[in-house]
Each structure stands twice: as C-alpha cells, then as structure tokens.
Amino acid sequence: MSRDPLVVGNVIGDILDPFVKSATLRLLYNNKEVMNGSELKPSAVVNEPRVEIRGRDTRATLYTLVMVDPDAPSPSNPTKREHLHWLVTDIPETANASYGNEIVPYESPRPTAGIHRFVFVLFRQSVRQTIYAPGWRQNFNSRDFAALYNLGAPVAAMYFNCQRENGCGGRRYL
Amino acid sequence: MWSLEEQDRHHKGVSSSSSSSRCSPSSSVLPQTPKRRTMEELWKDISLNASPPPLDRHPVYHGRQADCFLRLPSMVLQDFLAGPLNRPLYQPQAAAKEPSLPPLETALSLNSAKEFLGEADQQANTQSNSSSNNTNGNGSISCDFSAVPPRPAALFSLCSRKRSTTEIHPGGADRHQKRMIKNRESAARSRARKQASHAYTIELEMEVSHLQEENAKLKKQNEEYDSNSLEKSKTENDFLKKEAESHVTNAEIKLAELSTNENPTDIEKEPTEGSKGEMKQGESRTTEEQPTEAYEAERKEAELCEIEEPSTELSKPEMNATEQLEIENQSLTCIYKIHTVECWRSKNSRQFILVYYL
C-alpha cells in the first residue's frame, strides 16, 4: 500500500507517471506552506505562490513549473482535463518563480463544481530552452508536454484540493 | 438501447466485446419482431410469477421502473438477484425492448442453451470489466450501463451486490443509475482525499520522529565532545601552570643564589685569587641566566665591582694606593656606564689607566 499522497490522491495515474523525487518543492501562499493533499480556499490562492526549489546539485540548474487542474470542469466529469493555470520556465534554483519566464500567466483557481485537485509539477531543464505557450488552457496534457520539450520525468510534484468558497453551488443534474 | 434483433445478432455474430462501441444513449425503441412472440411464449411458460403486472404498467415503464419494481410484492429474492432482465416483473408484450429481453434471459437462465451461455460469458467478462472501469473512472462510460440488458449470462454468473443494485433501474432509469454511479465515484474520490491527507500526516509524523532521534543523538555527541575538550583543556591548563610555576621557582632560586653569590663581591675590595675566580664564575653564571630588570641592575653592579677588582689586579703593583682610590672614585661616580677599566704602562714607564664606558 503506497503512502505517497500523490499516489493515494490519484495524481500519479491521472496526470503523471510514477517518478522518483529528486528535488524539494515548497509552495507558499501568503507565507503559508502548502501541505501535499491539503485543502485551500479559492480566496487563499488568488495570487501566485512563492516557489522554493532545492535540488541535488547547486549549480545553475533551471526548472520548469506547471500548474494544472485535472478536474475541470468537475471531478466527476473532467472533460477539460487538464486545465492549465500556470507555466513558468527557466526558474533558477532556490529563487522564486518571478525570476523565471512566465509563459502562461497565473490564473486563480475558481472551481465551480466539486472538489478539484490543483497539481504542481516540477521538471528539471537540461538547457535553457524556449517553451511555447499552448493555444489554450484547457485539455493540456502534462505527459505530452514533457515529451515534447524533452523534460523527462518530473523531479517533484505537489497538489492541493480546492472547492467553491461558499457551499457546493447546488446539485448538478446529469 | 438494444433491440432483441440486435441482441440476437450479437449473440450469434461476431463476439467483439467493446461495450463502448455499442453504447448508444439514445433510447430508440425498435419495433417488435416476430421472435418476441416466441419469447413471450417462453416467458409465459417459464414465468416464475403467477401474477405478472398488467399491461397498464407499460407506459410507466420508462420513468418509473423502480416504482413498478417495488410495488410488486411477489418478487422472490432470487429473482431480484438474478438481475433486471430476469425480473418476472415485465410483461413481454409492448413496444419496449426491455420487457422482451427478460424472457430471453429467463430462457437463458433456465434452459441449457450452450451457445447462449458461451457467448454470454464473453460478454459477461467484458461487461464486468466495463462495469469495474465504470465505477472507478469517469462518468463518460456510464452509457455502458444502458447496454447492460443485453448481457444476460453476465448478470446470472456474477451475482454481485454492486451490479444487482445498479441493474435495478435498467434502460429508462438512466438518471438514477448515473446518479448512483456518480455518487459512487464521488465517494471514492473523497475516500482517496481522506487517505491522501492521512498518508501525508503519517509521513510527517515519521519525519518528526526521525528528526527528533537525530537531534537527540547530535545533542549527546555535542555534550560528550564538550566535556571531553573541557577536561583536556583543564588538564592542559594545569600542566602549563605547573610548568610555569616550576620555571618561576627555578628562576627565584637562581636569583637567590645569584644574590647570595654577588653579596660577597660587594663587600670585598681586594679579592683573592680564589674569590676572583668565584666572582668570575658568578659572572659567567649571571651572564648565563635570563636576566630580569632588577637582576640586571644587580649584575651590572656586580660587573662593576668585578671590573673594579680586576682592574686593580691588572694594574701594576707599582700603583700606589692613592691612584687606586682615585680610580675607584672615578669609576664609582659613573656606575652604570663603565664597561672596562684597563691599566697600561708605556715604554717610558708611564702608567695609563683606560676606562671604557658603555
């Protein structure tokens, strides 16, 4: 039985393939660290988080961070999986994401139906490469993205849950 | 929805098992075929129920399966578990496909038509797969359940609780089914969420305990190291102190010795050979010692005295006492400046006294 929150929460499987963690990724919204699998309110994640990356080698390695919502528009009907919320490349180690290249600007999570997972995936870049923004945010595929830009397996991942601020928004009929 | 025709074709034809391809959410009602009548006959023969519900139930069929089902008191548990198609509930007459299907199924269950069973098994496997996928995956495959009816043996063979409850509302009660499926999925997701957070806390706890152990270990190491070094430094300190003390005592002793040696030279004015030798020895000794300030002063005095004496010794015996005294006086006035005093006699038998100042 795997105890990894990523596996239990089905992040590995739905969005990512199993990988070996080789960097520490810390996300801080309003100076509060996000715990893997915890729940946050949309009001807490309005602005982009502060990112702290610590890898094995302290040379000038660059990282790419992807933030997706695999449960768009709703977890029981994720037809728009995955919805891309943020894409930053060329983040230097131990520096904030603001030092990187924001390819796709941060979009505040605003789940309307159900409890969505919001997944951060960190890739290590071998070289400083130009990554092009996709034409649209929805139906993004992290696996394909990584394959396309030769990013390899992710080095770290993290997710949190988020639902509507007030109530469930009413029952949705089939 | 399947019509009986299609079902027959399916049974007898290719056994492609992709249920999704057959899934058609449209509930088009296909016309009755002559085969139905035979099934109806079969049904009548085989019917387990003495009093099947009347025709008027039919219009209610599409939306109220559950109601019809529940109202019927004569339902036996086995019938219930056998699946909707085996329900003796449905009268196999109207235009609906569903009522016609149960007869087929009951025929299946009761007779030993091997081909049916054989092919149905395949379908059973596929259906079991699809249903299991369905409960785990997203709701887009929910249309599979509308295709449930045409898989009779599956229901018969796999009498699982899950499937029986889903098959309560076949065909027309899609909404109910779908609702249930979605509820199931939602429950599974919330269980996963709960497990994930639980797993995370467990991981954190493990790390905390690990760090605490490390901390304790390091603290212990630190203390040991500290105490060790303290002791070491203490012992070193003591040793050095003792050494210093010994040095000091040695110096004191030597000083005392020196002072005792020097005193006799001060007193004597005309030293004998032996005493001179002693003085010289004392001088040599003094020069060897590491001088302190006071000591140096003493030494100089001693030197001076010695200088005086040798000078008197060196001087020719012809020197009379007055001259000697003069020399002494002269030397005594500049006590710290005289280095040496020499007496010379020239060829003219003149005496010269040379006093060297520092």
Automatic annotation (TrEMBL), chain B:
It comes from the Eukaryota. Residues 266-288 have a biased composition (Basic and acidic residues). Its main location: nucleus. GO terms for biological process: abscisic acid-activated signaling pathway; positive regulation of DNA-templated transcription. Residues 15-28 have a biased composition (Low complexity). Keywords: Abscisic acid signaling pathway, DNA-binding, Nucleus, Transcription, Transcription regulation. It is found in: Nucleus. One of its GO terms (molecular function) is DNA binding. Residues 178-193 form the BZIP domain. CDD domains: bZIP_plant_BZIP46. Residues 1-38, 165-196, 259-302 are annotated as: Disordered. GO terms for cellular component: nucleus. This is BZIP domain-containing protein.
